[in-house]
Amino acid sequence: MGVHLTRGALGLILSYHTLLKRIAADAEEENVYVVAEDDAVLEPDFSQRLQQCLEALQGTRWDFLHVGYYDDDCSMAPLDGHLNRCLCRPIQVYGLFGAALTVRGARLLLEAKLRSELRAEFGGFWEVS
């Protein structure tokens, strides 16, 4: 079954692919990148809150954080332990308004490994229909 892509959707896919390739080429593995839609509105304390999340994640393996959503368009579940103070587990989310990702995360997305790892972790959440 084929998928019909609008010009805008194709442009978005190509832009993300180019951006992921640039991030994946970074030799500094510890760098974290934030990618957002061009019309995303960041809260005034976004940088501080992101830093709190990144600090909470120290010592864990993470590659991708979904950092934007509409309250009425998603459902979340709490995490156990100290991560619960600033992070939650997505159950169902529509759209990608923003993300923080590691260099390794960009490489995994390009290799399509992260998608299968996330599918194993979250069930059918990442299925494309």
TrEMBL record:
Top-level division of the source organism's lineage: Eukaryota
Protein's recorded name: Uncharacterized protein
Organism encoding this protein: Effrenium voratum
Lineage of source species: Eukaryota, Sar, Alveolata, Dinophyceae, Suessiales
